[in-house]
Amino acid sequence: MGKLVAGLFSTHVPRLMIFDEAARKAYMGDEVSTFYAALEEIRRNKLEPLDFDTFVIVDTHWHSTLDFLVNAHDRLRGLYTSDELPQMLAEYEYDYPGDSELAHAIVAEAKGLGVPAMAAAQRGLPVHYGTLNPMHYYNPGPAKKRVLPMSVCDPAEIEPNLAMGEAIARAVEHSGRRVVVLASGGMSHRFWPLATIRERASADPKDVSSPGLRAWDERIMDWWRAGDHASVLANVDEFRRSCAPEGRFAHYLVLAGAFGGAEWTVCGEQFGRYEAAIGTGQANFWFAGA
Q1: Cα 70–73–79 angle (5° rounding)?
Q2: How would you classify residue 27: left for phi > 0, otherwise alpha for psi between -120 and 50, otherwise beta?
Q3: Res. 253: pLDDT tops 80
Q4: CATH assignment, 3-288
Q5: Which residues, at least 6 apart from 236, have a Cβ–Cβ distance to it below 8 Å?
Q6: Each residue of 82-120: b (16+ CB within 10 Å) or e?
Q7: Across 253-273, average pLDDT
Q8: Would you say residue 6 has pLDDT above 90?
Q9: Are 118 and 30 within 8 A, CB to CB?
Q10: What does the domain layout of the chain look like in residue ranges?
Q11: Which among 13, 16, 91, 173 would be 20 to 30 A from 28, CA to CA?
Q12: For 78-120, what is each residue's pLDDT tens digit?
């Protein structure tokens, strides 16, 4: 019998892929991100001691419109350049084992729950930096874990996202896999205007694009620390409408659905501080499995 061994809400901001310390400081000034050390700490203290097979990654940079798409390739291999910020991420080689068997199982369970879903294995199907950036930190070296990215479905409201998470849990239980569900994306997601965006590129939370957005993010994080996912879900519709969270917060909703929705009471452990990224709110939270 398989098991969801942990959940992880993780940033994937492009600046993660700035490796030179001088270049980091040139971009962010004196307030350089804490995430470089935080993601390494998650890998070292949480992931490396954990017995698991596969990362299921809800990637908020993979957008779909008619179905939830699940990458069903047996291997994810290629050369990636970001079409958004090629100056930060270009000609990046990646090679990970996929998990076609689990992908098909998730899709079957989703359809059984009435959620439109499709296993995608078309040649040329892209892998996005919402998957690659966290995997650079969490899944290095020759003995890599399987990687199974899935899209966020843009028209999906709250319930289909929760049900997609339930489908993941059911498929994992029947598969024998041990899985970490990784919700890849940010919190509030409004950028600064182009005229000022470069000068507001620090990681300091004061550079979140409005105090109201920061206050909402802080409220969500307080609930996570308390394990009060019921309160998050009770307020998530307003959060989605008010704060334009990345991926409409689908990455968190699928994660929560996988672990029981409003019944989930596991407290989140924060790694790194809450940070700004050119106006957006970013954080990393680890949720231990049952």
Answers
A1: 105
A2: alpha
A3: yes
A4: 3.40.830.10
A5: 158, 249, 252, 253
A6: beeeeebbeeeebebbbbbbbbbbbbebbeeeebbbbbb
A7: 98
A8: yes
A9: no
A10: 3-288
A11: 91
A12: 999 999 999 999 999 999 999 999 999 999 999 999 999 999 9
DSSP 39-79: HHHHIIIIITTS---EEEEEEEEEEESSSEEEE--SEEEEE
Secondary structure letter of residue 11 according to DSSP: -
The strand ranges marked E within 139-274 are 146-153, 178-184, 269-270
**Distance between CA atoms of residues 221 and 147, nearest Å:** 27
For residue 172, give Cα distances in angstroms to 33, 41, 93, 265. Answer: 34, 26, 29, 20
Return the SS3 of 95.
Answer: strand
43 C-beta neighbours (distance < 10 Å), count: 15
Mean pLDDT to the nearest integer, 272-281: 98
- Model pLDDT, residue 143: 83
Instruction: Give the distance from CA 251 to its chain's centroid.
Output: 6
pLDDT tens track for 210-235? 999 999 999 999 999 999 999 999 99
Q: Is 4 helix (H, G, I), strand (E, B) or coil?
A: strand
The secondary structure element, H or E, covering residue 210 is: none
Helix (H) or strand (E) holding 243, with range, is helix 229-243
Mean pLDDT of the chain: 97
